[in-house]
Amino acid sequence: QVQLVESGGGLVQAGGSLRLSCAASGRTLSRYAMGWFRQAPGKEREFVAAIRWSTNYADSVKGRFTISRDNAKNTVYLQMNSLKPEDAAVYYCAAGGTIVAVTRNECDYWGQGTQVTVSS
After folding, report:
1. What phi and psi, each to the nearest 5 degrees, are found at residue 78?
2. Would you say 52 and 98 are in contact if contact means Cβ atoms under 8 Å apart?
3. Displacement of CA 61 from its chain's centroid (Å)
4. Cα angle: 35, vertex 24, 47; to 5 degrees
5. Is the dihedral of CA 3, 79, 39, 13 positive or negative?
6. What is the pLDDT of residues 19-54, one digit of tens each?
7. pLDDT tens-digit profile of 52-74?
8. What is d(CA 34, CA 51) in angstroms, rounded to the nearest whole number?
9. In the chain, helix, strand, coil percent, each to 5?
């Protein structure tokens, strides 16, 4: 079992930055591909970014968001720059077997989410 806890969400003005963190316990994250997803009110949960030995991003965040991991700290990060109002959502961290599976929303473990609000 893997427990994932997100942090770092909050309120930011459009054009600003936030860094989300996802801390894991139970098993080492290096065994997993990791991903970030988001869900805005009234919308389906959507893929944002994934990482294993490579990275993958949704087109909507390419060039603005960066996913990274620190296996020694068992933590995954999402650096979000140039935030837009449409980036506002609850952001979830997830773990899966491969980066392809994670990109397809086929994850084994999920965090509880952290709220990101972007004011215009």
Report:
1. -135, 105
2. yes
3. 11
4. 15
5. positive
6. 999 999 888 888 999 999 999 999 999 999 999 999
7. 999 999 999 999 999 999 999 99
8. 5
9. 10, 50, 40
Q: How many CB atoms lie within 10 A of CB 21?
A: 17
Least Cα distance to 26 among 9, 56, 5 occurs for 5
DSSP H or E segment with residue 38: strand 33-39
3-state secondary structure of 85: helix
Quote the pLDDT of residue 26. Answer: 86
pLDDT over 90 (residue 87): yes
Show Cβ contacts of residue 42 under 8 Å, excluding neighbours closer than 6 positions: none
The angle at the Cα of 42, spanning 20 to 78, to the nearest 5 degrees, equals 10
Sheet holding 3-7, edge to edge: 3-7, 18-25, 75-80, 65-70
Copy the structure tokens of residue 14: 């459009």
What does the alpha-carbon distance between residue 102 and residue 50 come to, in Å, rounded to a whole number? 7
